[in-house]
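Issue 218. Parser rejects a valid record. Input:
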Amino acid sequence: MVRKKKEPNRVDDLLDELLEDCHSPEDILGEGGLMKQLKKRLVERALAGELNGHLKREATAEGTAPNSRNGSSKKTVQSEDGELELSIPRDRNGSFEPILVPKHQRRIAGLDEKILALYARGNSTRDISAQLEELYGGAKISATVISEVIESVSADVKAWQSRPLEEVYPIVYLDALYVNIKVSGRVSKRAVYVVLGIDKEGDKQLLGLWIGEAETEGAKFWLKVLTDLKNRGLKDILIACCDGLKGFPQAIEAVYPHTQVQLCIVHLMRNCMKYVPWKDRKAVCADLKPIYQAATLAESEAALDTFAEKWDETYPAVSQVWIRNWENVIPIFNYPMEGRRVIYTTNAIESVNRSLRKVIKTKAVFPSEDAVFRLMYLAMNNISKKWNRPIKNCGANPRRFAALGNAHQDRRSALSHFAILFPERFSV
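Output the parser choked on:
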């Protein structure tokens, strides 16, 4: 077999020529190395090309004064390769506005994204500065500059928080996590409420977040949140799953009167365990299972009566927790088992909040509510990217793969059931 002769490649020839005098990593990656020199020359050539295009456009434009090059000015910018001292070309009229390195900008595109990515993982500004200095060979980027980059996403946060929503989300989950915020010079514990929607395709979408007083918000607060969702285009919610949020049922009755409120059974069980000592918890939990795992509502009511007869003398508060919340427990019995697994627990949003807690755990106190929104927004962007990403290495963890697949299948099954039960609402 005759091997095909390799065609000469101009790029390879140029690389060979450039690398001829490079004898160490420092010659390539160091402060005065080949990579940094190439980037500097490339940026300067690109800026020169921008000016050429600008002068040509002005030359053909009517009523424009004659223009020409007028030397250059020095400008130091931060890049992934450290500091670059660039020669920025100028024109006589002063009308040239560079795109690659805009006026007053001290960073080349790409560095901001890395700063935001590091911040979204819970790093402080000083940590980010130290990491960038280590990564990029001594490039010093001050905490002030990093703060400016982070604050630049405020407009994106506002746009995201006010973006239009779909008309129908069959299932909406609500949950809260808690942070410390400096308010009027004092540290105050605040609740950050996260709202997660399941669309008609079974996909998850973060609808927004709101900050309120920790554990003191009532119907007035939730009326504001729900009105905000409605004003953004959300016309109907079939089921809202939550953890006994104070005032929420009253508020949703006012804004979305046809929405069913489903109390999270897992949270209900946890609340019950507050009244049971450790030695009896296993037995009490086992006897509570027939209540929410019953095939019909009648069987569930009978199971609650059986539980009360057995345990009321010892732990009367447990059955009373179920009785008080019974109206918001029983909606699950309108649906098959696949649908019940989707709506009787807020696990979908709790997994989001677990990821968010990993990010905020390093923040003892936030300087403002805006700082909370910025970090949460960036962190949630990272979290939501994983939802549509193909699952890799499923063979290494088949249980996780199966769990993720079953969860999505359960959501689709529940939505199919909703589409049959509520065709007029589901098709809005």
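Fixed in the parser; the record now loads. Confidence is low (pLDDT under 50) at residues 389-405.
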